[in-house]
Structures are given as C-alpha cells and as structure tokens.
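Model: Ready when you are.
Researcher: Fold this.
Model:
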Amino acid sequence: MSGKRKMFFYGGIIGLIGAILMKLGNPGNMGLCIACFWRDIAGALGLHRAEVVQYIRPEIIGIIFGAFGISYVTGEFKAKGGSSPIVRFILGFFLMIGALVFLGCPLRMILRLANGDLNALIGLAGYVTGIFIGVQFLKKGYTLGRSIEQTNISKYIFPIFALVLLIFLIIKPSFILFSTEGPGSMGAPVIISLILGAVVGVALQRSRICTAGGFRDAILIKDTHFLWGILGIFVFALAGNLVLNFSKFNLGFVDQPIAHNDFIWNFLGMTLVGLCSILLGGCPIRQTILASQGDTDAAITVFGLIIGAAFAHNFGLAASANGVPQNGKIAVIIGILFALSLAYGVISSSKKNSNKEGVKNA
C-alpha cells in the first residue's frame, strides 16, 4: 500500500470511529474531540464547576493506552523532553482557550464539517490562517530548542495518569464529578469507548497524523502526505454519518449541536489554535500521542490544555450555543498577541546569540 493510501486508510479509521461513537451516544458532532474531552476530564477532577461538562472520557484513556502499547512494542516509547517546558505549558493553555471559543479542536472541526456544520469551514479558514502565520516564523528560524533524554521513570508518568483516570472512572469516588445533564452526561458505553479509543491511539501513533502538521508541510515544503490522513478522516466520517447518523445530518450554519455561528470568533478562535499548534510542533491530538509515548514536553503541553480548560470555564471564557462571551473574545486576542510576541522574541533571541557567536569566532 502506498504512503498516501496508507495515510488515507489510517485517517479513515479515525473518522469512522468518530461517527460510530456519536451513533452510540456521544454528543452531537463530537464522536471524538480531544479539546472537549480533556475539558470534560478537567471538570470531572473538579478543576472547573461547569456541571454540564464533567466526565472522565474513556476515549482519551483508550487513546493513551493504545499509543503507549504500540510505541512500547515498537521500541518508540522513550523518555525525552526539556525543550522550553514552561513556554509549552502556556501555549497549550492558550490553544485550549481558542478551541473552546470555537467549541472544538481541529479533529472535531473536521467531524463537524463531515456532519454538515458549515461553521467548521470558517474555523478551517482560521486554522489554516494561524498555521500559515506560524510557518512564516518557522522559515525565520523559530524553534523551542532540542529535546534531550530524560530520566527513565518520567516516560511512565502520562500512562500512569491515564491509569488513575481509569480507576476513577470505574470506582467513581465521591470527589470525582459526573454531569447529569448536558454534553457531559452523554457518552457511548465505556468498554466500547475504551476499545475504540485504543484503536484510534494505535492508528494515530503509527500514522503520525497531525492536523497542523498536514497543513504545515503542504505550505512549507509542498508535501501533502499528512493531508491524505486528514482527508481520510473527513471522507469516512461523512460516509459513516450518512449511513449511521443520517437523521442528525444537518447541512448549514444554524441549529448545529454544541456550536455557534459567530463567524469572526469561529475564525479567530481557530487562528489561535493553528498558530499555537505550529509553535508547539503539533495539534492537541498529536501532543496527546507524543505524551503517551514518553515525550514529557508533550505531556506538559497536555497539562496546559487541561488548566486552560479549567480557566476557560471558571472565568467565563468558553463559548456556548448562545455565542462567545466578552471575556472569551478578550482572551483570544491576548492569546494571539502572546503567541506572536513569543515567536518574534524567540527569533530575535536566536539571531542575537548567532551574532555573538560570530563575533566570538571572528
């Protein structure tokens, strides 16, 4: 099987599973959403008190276990990190703010489009715009530095975190919160969600699919390899929805589940997501997979996502079907300005260091 066909097939697995999970009970157009699911987990852990979005999503646990297991078998489970961790945490924080203003991560953006939500087209335009801006910084030498080998125990922290979440999901201790209404109360059967999540984790780990990486490579080096994976997600999710969820298929901008049609903030929210994803080196789903295979920088980014979700709901930043609150709009603008300033500062610092080295060696 050729590389492009293989990518399309892997993407197809993910897209089809997204449609299946929605059919089995996950919220509308949210068979899979990394940002939304980490947001729900943050709520379940009591980090925010938005009662309608509190649930330990088994799909996330399955994805982590799947990626961990296959990377362990293939010898890719290695401890590395140390590349600007605090910067990665903050970028993850703002990435989540942008996602919750749009109401979905890049993966959900594709799945929303595959079920007829044309607001996702506006989000896609913003996402590609953010990626394009980020690529300009890459061309000028932006980097957060090289990761180095870490202590062996550090690579197990993230899988252990997933195991703790699974224990909480099973025994349901009193300090873990579960929604009784709203999106957080909706979910496919736990066992099926775990299994299908694990399949997604394996597919993502083997394929290296990254929504940001796909558009980045197409813009930067004219390589469409990963775009075939993104196309596979869309095509198979569309086919799955037309077969399994046809009664819920709704082509248009209005009356879409867990979405709003404020074009400007759909665009700018995903612009922030795209820009942060490029500066981080991967979208939320890629960061989750990397963390599962021992990358502590990616794990720190994911924890930034979790805290960003908690902050968004505790301080009224997250959007809803009613639109985007003023605080959320301000936060997106701050996030974009922060990301731009950070990238510019990194490049400026790099040039100064290069000039010093040049003078020293002269």
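Researcher: Now this one.
Model:
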Amino acid sequence: MHQILSEYVAATFPGGVHLLSGLGIDSVAEAVYRTMLARPEGDVADWAAELELTEREAREALDRLSRLALIQQSTAYQTQMRAVNPLLGLEALLARQQAELAAHQQHVESSRAAVADAIAKYAPDYAPGAGSGFQYIAGIEAIREQLEILNSQVQEEFLTFAPGGPQTPANTAASRPLNKRLLSRGVRMRTIYLDSIRRDAPTVSHAEWLVEQGAEIRTIPTLPNRLIVIDRRTALIAADSRNTGAGAVVVDNPGTITLLCALFESVWQSAQPLGVRPEPEPETGLTKQQAEALRLMARGCTDEAIAHRMGVSARTIRRTVASLLAHLEAESRFQAGVHAVQRRFLPSDSD
C-alpha cells in the first residue's frame, strides 16, 4: 500500500484497524470514501493524488463503493460522483447485512431440523449395538467416525489394547490433542502396547508424554486384537486382527462387555509398566518376549506370523529363534520344543 494511504489508515485507526471491513469495505475503498466526504468538491484526480493512488486504482475503488451504494452521481455536476451521507449509506449496508444474517440463521435452523429428523430416522439402525448389542461397521472411514462418536461420549475410563508395534509419527501427532483433552477432563486412560515399542524412540517418547499427562501405560509381548472399551459400557473390536482397518464390531452387550473388561484386567496385571525394564524369568532365564516367541513356535507359527503378533520384523524373530536354540542347546525347532518341555518351559501334552 502506498505510504500516504498507510499513514492515513494508521493515523485514523491506531494499530492499523480497518473500521469498515466488517461491512465489506476494503481499506483502499474506505480511504477513498473518507476523502470524498472530506473533499466533496474534488474529483477522481484530486482524490487519487491525495492518497497517492493511480487514477485507475481510485476508479476501481469508486466502482466498489458504487456497488455498495456508498457513492452516487452528483445532481449538481453530472460528470462527478459524490459520497452518500454515512448516516444513510452505512446504515443501509448494516441493514443489508442484518437481513443476510437473518436469512442465514433461518437456513441454519432449517438444516438443524433436517439433521434432527435424520438422526431420529436412522439412529436405531446406526447406534452402537442396535438391536442385539453388536454392530458391524465396514471400512476405515466408518471406524474413524465411530471412534469420534465414542471419544465424544467417554466420561470416566478409556481402555485400549494397541497391537501393531511402533506407532507412526503421524498417528501419534494426530492423537495428542484428543488424549490431552480426555486426560485434562479426568478420564482414566490405560493403554497396553506391545513390548516392541520399547525399541522405538519416537513411540517411547509419545508413551512417556502420555504418562506425563496422567495416562497409565504398560507393555506385553503379544496382544490378542485391537480393542477399545469406553466407560465399561461400549467396546470397539477389530473384526480382523491382521487387517484392523477392514472393519470393526461395536459392542454394548452387557455380558460381553464384562468379559472384555475381565480380559483387559487380566492382561493388564501381566503387563510391565513402561518405566520398568523387562527382566528374564529366574526359572527359565528367558525374557517374556523370548518365552512368548517360544510358545508361538510350539504352536507351529511361522516367523512372519510370530513377527506380526509381536509387532517386530521377521528378521528380529529369526534372531530371537536363534538365541532360543542356543539357550535350549537345540539344533532345530523341533528339538528346541522337546528341550523346552523337558525343562518345563512349556507344558507337555499330558499336563
């Protein structure tokens, strides 16, 4: 903006506040309008010169003022324009905005009524557990929508199984505002991650941040599935543990919720707090991760399947298997299983 125009606006409104912007008048048009009021005997060239505008800029401002009905042709001089008295022009602009606001408000109220009708019509079909206490929802978008609904309803407790291993920076960043909001409201948040997150610095940093905010975090070698329980009344369970974005089941059946809460408490008791370093079991000399890998090996799981369950790479599992073979003094997986049963690391068929 030209120097004189900037000084004009700054001198008229300290701090650069533009008084008439709320009425749809830009700073150049406002300066021209005020100059016309102060110098009604002038013409376009005079007003442009006073504001250090080009005549083209001044005429463009006049066009905008004309559309707002703030200037009109002079009755005394047909070739000149005059500024409309602000008591009339600005009042008319304000009345127009009030009419537009009233129309918008009426539109909002109509929309609100339509939304209320839609909720009343479709809520029985889309409410969690409609009819039976169980509802299947398909696709990641529907899951995210359901999570938003559940998160808005939580009052006291938020329980989570978080399989999948280390979290992506995008996911942790996106979850922080919601987590902070829930924790600041006094919601008790308990989350169980996989032990594998302990080797991922960004995920550990996020988990430590959650603890600082008041959350409780523990880890365990494997988790059965992704699970969220809200206030011990509603749960969300992944329909496919290997593809958690494919679909989910919303549960509000009281009996099933009781079982899910019991499962969570059982896993919580066996999980390690985040600040506690997992130590080998004195009876076996195996860490919980090694013991879980051994148990999955005995069930015939492949390296890839074990890696998925534990949230680590197949390469990491191959190293774990190699360490187990060495610890059990075995040359094969089969021999490792035999030695594990003999040493009571695993139950025998007769147990």
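Researcher: Key takeaway?
Model: The chain has 13 helices and ten strands.
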